[in-house]
Amino acid sequence: MLDGRFRFETFITGPSNRLAVSAARAVAEAPGQVYHPLFLYAESGLGKTHLLGAIGYSALQVDPVLRVEIRAAEDYAEQLRAAAGRGDLNAWRREWESIRVLLLDDVQFLEGQPEAQAELLRLIDQAHGRGFQVVLASDRPPAELDNLDQRLLSRMSGGLIVDIAAPEIDTRRGILRLWRTARSLNLDEDVLEELAQHDVENVRELLGLFNRLVAQHALEPGARVSGTARAVVAQVREEHAPPDEFSSFLNEVAAVVTSSVEQWRARLASTVARWAGEGYATESLEQLLDGIEPPDVDAAEARFAAAVHQLRDLEQEAARLDPRLAGVSVFRDPGRLEEARSIVMRALAAYDPPPGPAPHLTIGAFQAGARNQLALRAAGEVVALPGTRYNPLYIHGPSSSGKTHLGHAIANALSDRDNSAWTVTVVDGATLGEELIEAMRAGALDRWRMRYRAADAIIVDNVHRIGGSDRLQDEFFHLFNSFIEMGKQVVLTADAPPARLSSMAARLQSRFEAGLVVEIGVVSEAEAVARHTPVPDGAEAAAPTIDAWFEDAIGPDAPRPTFMDPASGVDSFFLDPEKVVTEWPGLDGRVVEDPR
Amino acid sequence: MPIVNYAAREITCKIVYYGPGRSGKTSNLQYIHRRVPVERRGEMMSLATHGDRTLFFDFLPIDLGTISGFTTRFQLYTVPGQVYYRSTRRLVLQGADGVVFVADSQRRQMDENVESYRDLHEALAEHGINAREVPLVLQYNKQDLPPELVCSPPELDRALNFRNVPSFGADALGGLGVFETLKRTSELVLRRLAAPAGAR
Question: Is the full-model pTM beyond 0.80?
């Protein structure tokens, strides 16, 4: 049955459907003459049924006596089955063969129905022979219909296949204006434009939008129609949005958070598993894993790997010195690196002890006198409070002044501490330099370092002889610092105060000066004057001993005058109380601790 | 940086929608608000004039639930786009972990876009934020308008996106591109959690 609403006049033509409309008009005006069959396809709601109806309506306008039928393919197949069931197939065929313009809609429903397809094939062939028109409509082109007889496919493709696309904006505008007119609505163009701008997939969706607008406006007649239109469009758009848009967003955020925030735990756990598999204690890494805040994983892994590397070297060295130390658990625990190092140092000290003091050079055997009072007193302080009072103790004086004796004496005194548990090494600067060169040449620098670092105190006699090489001084700098940092006593002797050790690096000079610098031995009047040793404020104790000047000038046993008789022949400069201080405060006041 | 409270295991990110007046910043938040389940969203606070323009700012808190043990929250803000609300924009931008610049795709709005984008860079600089490092995404809104009225995303990229940051065409009213924009911004913001300190 034809629906009079479906006419070409009520079908808005645009780029999306112009070809289909043109073909439809052509077959309506001359059925069976131009395209046989005409095959229209489009998604649902784009006007296939409307065009079929328009063809029929128009064909009847041209020739009112034509037999025009519009049928759904489902009905066609159903009637065929019924006729076959009744045994009345011939009558059914005659009925269909008499139709001049057959408009068959939704032919996709004939998929998988071979009997219906065979009858349709026969009908198309017969119609073609008699100049009748068949128009088919489907939601897909023939080639996409499944289980279709190849001969029928060939016939369908032999006429004209044309599609109808979704209405573009101009078509949508035209459709909306048509509906406005049809319903006699007073809607402004801008309102229609608001709707037309909405990209729809088919005309039914547009009609739904239009109907909502009309209904909404009827409910709220006071509202601005353009605002209502916008709201309606937004609502429809939202309804058409994917339902799980937020879930999709949430999933992606979760993936990013998981990979970003917890990534470090996964990495650390993997590192722990790897080292644990190699038999190393991984508590230090596991503690990080238990933490709340993410650590610097790169740095933690690098530290652990470096510690493992050092442990391996230490174990190798320990096993060389004492095979019983191989495999000791401490060498599998990076958290006990210092302990492992200490074990190796002790083993090394037992295997190849650093040089100790000469036993006969004791404090008791040291000749005390006015020239070495200060140094002797400082030595006493160092022995009483090693590593805490004056560190380093720097004793300088000329050759044969007794500084080597005093250095050994300090070492012997320290060695006797705590039931002789202390390891005190005494080494000449020249020897130290030679050993260092040999260790570097033999690639045994670590062993050399540990051998000395195992000591509880070090006395370097003639430290000025270490040598002018930067590399040697670098190494000594690190050895010196390790002792100071660990609170181990360092005593240095030299032939000149630190500032006058021209070949010594400034950083060593300054460190030597940071403890207590004392002079020992004879300082002649001429030397003292020539030396012009600067005496910084508060460091008067390090100044050349004025006692020595007087002893040399007037004899050790002469009374200490406050005024000198010119007849004695002493240089008048030394007799001028304004130039030379002759009355010093007590000795306590002359030992000044340099702030470090 | 996003606020990551490891003790309380919470992550809070502040994302600010920036752009010229009427470019669709509030529409973005309104669409997100409608799509987020009620139990996940707070009230959207909006101070607007009668002309639908944002007078102060919009604020939409979203609770994303517990992710990898972290309670994750997003706070979305818009700034008033009108030129004379400059100081308000500065305040809202403070502490932003990520910025969405919503441009109006209409050809006649191009100057406003450029001016607002420049204003964004000035505001970031005033807050001591390096515009090269802050997570920034461009959204070209109103792409649903007739082609003759709007610039295409490639055209807008050429005019605005000299930093070559991610950009999306959008129709904020209908929702096209809204979540894509938010997703990309969130990803950029959250990726910074894993970045080394020097790369943040």
Answer: no
